[in-house]
Amino acid sequence: MREQQLQSILRHMPAGIATLLGPELRYGFVNEAMQALLGGDTPEGQPLANHLGTLAADLLEVMQQVYQSGRPYVAKAYALPLPGEAGQAATPRYFDLALEPLQDEDEQTQGLLLFAVDVTGQEEARQRAHELALETRRLDARLRVLTETAPQITFSVDADGQYEYVSPQWYYFTGQPPTADLNAIWPLLIHPDDRLRVLYQSDAARAGGIGWSFEYRLRRHDGQYRWVLSRALPELHAPDKAVFWHGAVTEIHDQRELAEALRRGEAELRFLADSIAQLIWTATAEGFIDYYNRHTAEYTGRTPEELGPTGWVGLLDPSEQAAAARRWVQSVASGADYEGLYRMRRHDGVYRWHIIRARRLTDSRGLRWFGTCTDVDDQHRLREVLQSQYDELARTNRDLDTFVYTASHDLKQPLFNLRGLFEELKRTATFHDPEQKDILVMVDEALRQLDSTLQELAATVQDQRELATPTEALDLSSVVEEVLLGLRTQVQETQAFIDIQTQEAPTLVYGRANLRSVLHNLLSNALKFAHPARAPHIVLTSRLSPTGKPELTVRDNGLGMRLRGGTAPAFHLFERQHPRVPGAGVGLYLVQRILDSHGGHLEVSSAVNEGTTFTVHWFE
């Protein structure tokens, strides 16, 4: 009865229990848990080898060795692939398998007691703990590599301020040996002016269980003190008590010096802006003014707060405010420079003309606008006066040109009448005078001179009107031939020889009328002032200067002239070198006027009775 009760208890135990009898390890008693473990096929009396179920062959070998040796054995966390539910793959379960030999009174082994306890949960937890430990070691190794390769000193401090860890960068930076007492030496390397503050702030942070961030000077291996930034955060343990502080020390010496230089530069620029008698302001990227210099307040009579973010617009003449504001909004949106001329109210209520300019600057600190308001009222009014005077002078000059041109034109008719009367007198009238012939020559010469002067005056006015004629690419030899065609009579009368050499610089970008006037005056003068003892020989050469600019040279073998003012004399209107030669003295004056108006100049070299050379520099 008692044996049946024991078997009933064992049969329903959650642990697997089985007896294996004899050297063949035949199935004996197998409870329900072991039946499930072995797959349910455990026929009593059959050898285990014929019905292993989920057991592996190596476990059978171990069972046989335990049977033979009589020594018990426990297989910890042995994996058995238990079949899953319908359609599912087998899942491994872990068991502690105890193999206990069954002995008789003579201590002879009769079989084995197989005891299996499911430890799947514990084994999976152990495996997860092992994986976490491996991952922790991997992350710790990675963190150590990162901290020891980063350009920072990393450290760990306990609640008492004792350093638990410091990265190798500490030794590289300070030059201290690894055997140095870190806790003793660190405070001594802090600059004396910063030491007390640093020690107090770190002690206060540890006492309060909070992190810290402060700057101080730390002595480097070369003896120089460098600014560093120390930051640390606490490691909290339950119940929210800080045990360690982990942080880093970063060198910020260069950044701090740069920031200090920027602060000094900004202070100097602000001082400079306040010292300039001009309205200076800055604005944000959105176009709102955030700074006015001191002169702005003095000029407008308003404080920066009263001016506000759009101050200069409100100071403009009411009729100009809307247009100025629209242009400012467009500039802010497009980034284009702002410039305008507006009337701005001074502190006494007087509106004065100002040029308002603003430009956008983008740098590491972002986008900003810099603007100025420059008082140009005096210059503006002076320019208006000068413009009025210029307009008046231009009108007077036009009237004078018109008068000269008209007078020379209107005087031609009386001249024709005088010439006709003189010819009629010579033909019909007679009078007895021993100097009759000389008088007639003098009168005829006077009439001819008057006619020439009137023609020269008309030509002068006409040439001055053509100074602003449009330029074009001209063939120089073609224009020369055109001018010589008009001088054909003088060339034939003087039997002149003219040599034209324009191969080196055959074209010239110039006004056609101006070029023709220059050539006509230079060539006609060379013919007019020919030496009476020899035929004129004129050489016209077009070439390039050493700087690549076109030049023209006209050389003759005529009377020559005495020059005043070196090689660049000033020729004046009606000034004549040879009074005996007919002329009005306006030709060279016109040439000089034309060249000056186009950025050129005239050079002259001459020898009396040998000849003259004119060099025309078309452009400087």
UniProtKB/TrEMBL annotation:
It comes from the Bacteria. Keywords: Kinase, Phosphoprotein, Transferase. One of its GO terms (molecular function) is phosphorelay sensor kinase activity. SUPFAM superfamilies: ATPase domain of HSP90 chaperone/DNA topoisomerase II/histidine kinase, Homodimeric domain of signal transducing histidine kinase, PYP-like sensor domain (PAS domain). Its EC number is 2.7.13.3. It catalyses: ATP + protein L-histidine = ADP + protein N-phospho-L-histidine. The keyword Phosphoprotein applies. Residues 212-264 form the PAC domain. Residues 406-620 form the Histidine kinase domain. Residues 265-307 form the PAS domain. InterPro entries: HATPase_C_sf (IPR036890), HATPase_dom (IPR003594), His_kinase_dom (IPR005467), HisK_dim/P_dom (IPR003661), HisK_dim/P_sf (IPR036097), PAC (IPR001610), PAS (IPR000014), PAS-assoc_C (IPR000700). This is histidine kinase. It comes from Hymenobacter chitinivorans DSM 11115. The lineage of its organism: Bacteria, Pseudomonadati, Bacteroidota, Cytophagia, Cytophagales.
